[in-house]
Amino acid sequence: MQWCPRQSRPVRTGRTTPPERSHDVTENEPLDRHPRRRRPPGGRRVAGRPWHGPRHHTRHPATASDTLVNGGALASGATLSSGNARLVMQRDGDLALYTVGANGTDQQLRWHSGTTGEGNKAELRTDGNLVVTAPDGGALWQSRTGDRDCPHMPWTKLALRSDGVMNILSGSDSEAPYLVPLWSSSYGLQFPCGVSGR
C-alpha cells in the first residue's frame, strides 16, 4: 500500500489474497463448498446458474382454449375462444360462433347450428363427426364428417381461428405436419367429403 495525499486513507496498489477460511468437516458432511447448488436426484442445473429445484411437468388437457379434439365435448355454457372469436354452447341449446370488437362489444353472429333445448352439448366424436346432442343423447345437428359419411385420416380436431372461422381438420395423429380440412363454418363440407348446406 502507498499513501495518497488527497485522501486520508491508504490506497491498495496490488491484489492481495484473502485468508483461507477454516472449515471443519464432520464425518457425515459432504465435501461441497456450494450447498445452494447441491442437486438432489431428478433435478437439473444449467451451467452458470443456481439450481432452483426439480422440474415438474404439467399434463396439459386434451382441449386447448381454441381447440376441441376428437372425443372432446362442450357442455352447456362452455366456450372456445381465439382472439375476438367465440364458439359458445349456449344454454338455450344453440351452438353459436361470434366475433366481438376489440372492446368486447359489437358482437356479430357468424354461424350457428340452429338447435334449441336446455342441456344440449356439442361433441366431436372419435370418428370425427361434430354433433349437437340433446340430454337424452339424440342428435340434433351434425357436420357429417364421421367415417361413414366422409372417409378421412384417424385423428381430427375442431380449430377456432381468430378471424371468426372454425374448421374440422384431420391428420394421421396430433403431431401431423399437415392437416386436411373436412368442414368449415364458412363453406360447409370440404372435398373429399362432399357439399353441404352448412
Notes on the structure:
Helices cover 0% and strands 30% of the residues. It is mainly beta and 198 residues long. The protein has a domain at 67-189: Orthogonal Prism (Agglutinin, subunit A), CATH 2.90.10. The strands form four sheets. Strands 3-12-13-14-15 form a five-stranded antiparallel sheet, with no helix packed on it. The protein is globular, with a radius of gyration of 31 Å.
Briefly, what is this?
Residues 65-181 form the Bulb-type lectin domain. This protein is mostly beta strands.
> In sequence order, what are the helices and strands, one letter per element?
EEEEEEEEEEEEEEE
Instruction: Provide the CATH superfamily of the domain at 67-189.
Output: Bulb-type lectin domain
Output the structural class. mainly beta
Strand order of the largest sheet: 3-12-13-14-15
So, CATH architecture of the domain at 67-189?
Orthogonal Prism
Q: Would you state the CATH class of the domain at 67-189?
A: Mainly Beta
What is the strand tally?
15
* General shape: globular
Major sheet attributes: 5 strands, antiparallel
The residue-averaged pLDDT reads 78
Intertermini distance: 89 Å
Portion in strands = 25-35%
The residue ranges in which pLDDT falls below 50 over 5 or more consecutive positions are: 31-35, 39-43, 49-63
Helical region count? 0
CATH fold group of the domain at 67-189: Agglutinin, subunit A
Helix content: under 10%
Q: What's the alpha carbon Rg, rounded to whole Å?
A: 31 Å
Biased composition (Basic and acidic residues): 18-33
Protein name: Curculin-like (Mannose-binding) lectin
Region (Disordered): 1-67
GO molecular function: carbohydrate binding
